[in-house]
Known about the structure:
It contains 13 helices and 19 strands. By secondary structure, the protein is α/β, with parallel strands linked by helices. The chain has a 10-stranded mixed sheet with strand order 9-7-5-2-10-1-11-14-18-19, with helices on both faces. The longest helix is centred in the middle third of the chain and has 22 residues, at 153-174. Bound molecules: inosinic acid.
Amino acid sequence: MPGTVIVGAQWGDEGKGKIVDLLAQHADLVCRYQGGPNAGHTIIVGGETFKLRNMPSGILAGKESVIGAGCVVDPEVLVQELDDLEARGVATEGLVHVSGNAHLIMPWHVAIDQASERRLGKLQIGTTRRGIGPAYADKAARLGIRVQDLLDEKILRQKLETALAEKNVWLERVYGAEPLELDDVVRRLDRVAPRLAPFIADTSLLVDTALRDGRYVLFEGAQGTLLDLDHGTYPFVTSSNPVASQAATGTGIGPNRLDAVIGVAKAYVTRVGEGPFPTEIEGADQERVRELGGEFGTVTGRERRCGWLDLVALRYAVRLNGITSLALTKLDVLSAFDELPVCVAYRIRGGETTPDFPAHQSDFHHALPVYETLEGWSVPLGGVTSLDELPSAARRYVGFVETQLDVEVSLVGTGAEREAVLASRGVAAVARP
Ligand code: IMP
């Protein structure tokens, strides 16, 4: 019963979609276990670019795709996504399964996310404004509306009426925003409910059965470890748990079903939104990395902040997720630099140097990176087809990461296409360790 988790090892946008797409060629089922349309997985197949939001990346490989109970779903965005995929010849019927227990992102969640960020002003989190935080907050407060509620018009209207009575007070009195009309919200949901109904399934049973039958299941994390609600750089985090162990909870299977964890990290670091970022690059080099790496948000179009590779943070991600091997993406972007600083430790308050991620927020906020500078390779990686063919300085860069973290780098990304990933021992062997 092979189950492999693919998890973001930094602040999201590590290129997970592309790695999932590659490994999905060898999988039977791909499951999303947390997050919602704040995720934006960009995948290029046969020269065509797909930007997925709610949908597991496995759908592009024609695999059964599950949206688990731990996810939040914007029903209108999902319908749009299904329609777009079908219009571009990607089959979804009979392949996409949405947990009835996943929570719905309602129009008031989006309105509150936007109003709350506006009100926070300089203190804002820099959310994607897709209603993620308010939807998870209502789930925890037991006021949420779930995917299965779409199946019963009467129950749905009752729940909407109860929720909206309270949410409109918040919108009007707390945020000074426009209230929402019950009939409008009901109409919007009535439009999408029949389209989504055939996709709603008992996904816990479905995934467990697949694993028992010996089918190979990939679990696709969204966002990244440092955006984890419990273990990330709180409060500049998302409202769910991207870490690998959530793959079990968010799908509804036992933790002993997970065999391997592939952490995905860029060969440098990016971050969108606010919050501390010790290795953020100063000056023109930041702009250079952003341009070369195309570091602009898939969902929001925002500029991503760019930094040098941070092995303190990555060491933390290895620990939190139990990472068994790493996929190091976008190595080609570093071809433009003669010298490559890599952060191996932080200098924290009192002048102490530590290789471990600080447990106290103030230590992290004030952490200064301690760099080792590695030699660059200064040639494009375009034609390289195996790890052995990499320039020796690039091999040393990858080897340095392995030695520092004591984890194998099993995949290296050298370009945007599905083919531009070098595998240490064949993609199938990496996918099914
Ligand atoms: P939210 O998830 O929209 O609530 O945003 C909370 C924080 O997570 C913000 O800093 C966002 O920029 C960040 N975030 C959310 N989703 C992603 C993602 O897919 N990639 C990178 N950052 C993300």
